[in-house]
Amino acid sequence: MSDSTSDDATAQGDDQPTDDRARSADGGGAVGQASDRDGPGTGGSEDGRDIVGYVQWAAFAILCLLALVATFRFYFAASEAIRVWFSPDFVPVFQAVFNLVVLAASAIGISVLVRRIA
Q1: What share of the chain is helix, strand, coil (3-state, %, to 5)?
Q2: 6-15, 60-69, 107-116 — which is least confidently predicted?
Q3: pLDDT of residue 44
Q4: What percent of the chain has pLDDT over 70?
Q5: Average pLDDT over residues 38-57
Q6: Shortest CA distance to 105 belongs to which of 78, 86, 66, 65?
Q7: How far apart are CA 16 and CA 23, in angstroms?
Q8: d(Cα 8, Cα 15) in Å, to the nearest integer?
Q9: Could you tell me if 82 and 91 are in contact, meaning their C-beta atoms sit under 8 angstroms apart?
Q10: Which DSSP letter does residue 88 get?
Q11: Which of 1, 50, 60, 94 is the most exposed place for a label (fewest CB within 10 A)?
Q12: What average pLDDT does the segment 45-57 reach?
């Protein structure tokens, strides 16, 4: 009969203190309520952070585009400088060396980015 007594105690809600301890362990909030861990600004300030984030990403994209244009211009200007500064006999050699250096720098940069991403 002791089993029925423990079943009756459980059915009557004697296990409620256990629920209170579980609630206090997970932050003290009831289901559906925001706890203090959510932090302030769960309403309108997130919109402000979203706008700032979009502006930062737009600025990043514009700066990347400018860097890309500057890289192409530098590449073609360096190629032209090789044609001007060196004798026509050696232009293909210096162009090849310059292109090899650019290729090696690009490969190193891609390798570093792949390691950081993966």
Answers
A1: 75, 0, 25
A2: 6-15
A3: 53
A4: 62
A5: 72
A6: 78
A7: 11
A8: 11
A9: yes
A10: T
A11: 1
A12: 83
